[in-house]
Design brief:
heterodimer; A: alpha+beta; 6-stranded antiparallel β-barrel; B: alpha+beta; elongated
Chain lengths: ~180, ~180
């Protein structure tokens, strides 16, 4: 492990573990019906809820597969335009060369506490045109609450060929809302 | 929620006339603008600063974990996690593709985003799955406390009672943290 250790530790003492294990044994022995999270089918989002969550998020986690088969990933900004999700990649992102070689991705859109999450598996396609870059930057900036002045500066600073837009082509959606799972 | 209030697209945020104006302006300019204001750090302290946030901000207690699939691709999911004694822990259960995949190939990656969505860290490493009741209970205590304070430990733990549940120990090997410059 590295030298960096969290200053604040959450610890579970052996006494606590033993106490709660005993409580669990008692629950199991009594046949008490408890709420578990095994069947996620009950907590899926419908199509409109899914796109609402994707649109509401300020970003998403893009995962890809590296050449050695290991997973890679990063947090990226996105926008939903003309019925598709577009992701913004920056120059220097490991994702750019990797995705040009292997376009398979898995993307997690997190709706925040009490809302849910959507995972999209599919592929991405580079959209290397200036119009798409501008459109995505405008949408992302406004969604992030930029002022028009800030937004103009952001678009003016954008560098075609140094920032990249990829369109997400979904093949499968996995959705759930954890609001129901933890009952508030 | 009322379906008429749902926003399922960002199209209303983009004006096509405005796009045309920007296109005209940018087509004539050389690509010599400065890079976007972001820097990348491999310092574990930068990563732990983000990973620690859930202790302080209840609403940011999860991340996206990714793993390799049997077909050579990648899959990912949103997971809750807790830091126990300086290690990252999460959970899964028997019967899920994630579990079988992680038992087959332990390589994994976790991305956690700061509450203000301006910083993020990618933690590369591997996972160890344990179905030992003590490890699962230990995680359940930590996660319940991590999320909602000691008062919620009871109901939190009950939700992890099911047989076939695993605790995931995430062994961090490398950090890539993205920060505003």
């Amino acid at each position: 492990m590295t030298s960096a250790t969290p200053e604040r530790r959450i610890e579970a003492t052996e006494e606590e573990v033993e106490y709660w294990l005993q409580r669990k044994r008692e629950r199991v022995a009594s046949g008490e019906k408890v709420f578990t999270v095994e069947d996620l089918k009950a907590y899926q989002l419908d199509e409109a809820e899914t796109w609402e969550l994707i649109t509401a998020g300020k970003g998403c986690t893009l995962s890809w597969v590296a050449s050695d088969g290991s997973p890679g990933g990063t947090y990226v900004k996105h926008a939903v335009l003309n019925g598709a999700a577009y992701l913004l990649l920056l120059d220097g992102d490991e994702a750019v060369p990797v995705l040009r070689r292997d376009s398979r991705v898995s993307v997690v859109f997190d709706g925040g506490d009490g809302v849910g999450a959507v995972t999209v598996r599919g592929t991405v396609e580079f959209v290397d045109d200036l119009r798409s870059l501008i459109r995505v930057l405008l949408a992302v900036g406004r969604r992030d609450g930029m002022t028009e002045e800030q937004l103009a500066g952001r678009v003016r600073a954008a560098r075609p060929g140094r920032e990249y837009v990829v369109r997400l082509n979904p093949e499968r959606f996995v959705t759930f809302t954890h609001k129901k799972i933890f009952r508030g | 929620m009322d379906s008429e209030q749902r926003v399922t697209s960002d199209d209303h945020l983009v004006n096509e006339d405005e796009v045309e104006r920007w296109l005209a302006e940018k087509r004539g300019e050389p690509a010599t603008r400065p890079a976007p204001p972001m820097r990348v750090s491999s310092d574990p302290d930068d990563a732990w600063a983000i990973l620690r946030e859930p202790h302080e901000i209840v609403h940011a207690y999860g991340g996206a974990i990714a793993w390799p699939t049997k077909d050579g691709g990648v899959a990912s999911a949103y997971v809750g996690f807790a830091i126990l004694d300086g290690e990252i822990w999460s959970t899964t259960t028997k019967g899920r593709g994630k579990t079988y995949a992680m038992l087959r190939d332990p390589r994994a990656m976790l991305v956690v985003v700061s509450a203000d969505r301006q910083r993020s860290t990618t933690v590369y490493g591997r996972v160890e799955l344990s179905n030992d009741d003590r490890d699962v209970t230990r995680f359940a205590i930590g996660f319940s406390r991590y999320r909602g304070g000691a008062a919620e430990i009871g109901p939190g733990i009950a939700s992890f009672d099911s047989p076939g549940r695993y605790a995931i120990r995430f062994i961090a090997e490398r950090f890539v943290t993205r920060l505003p410059a």
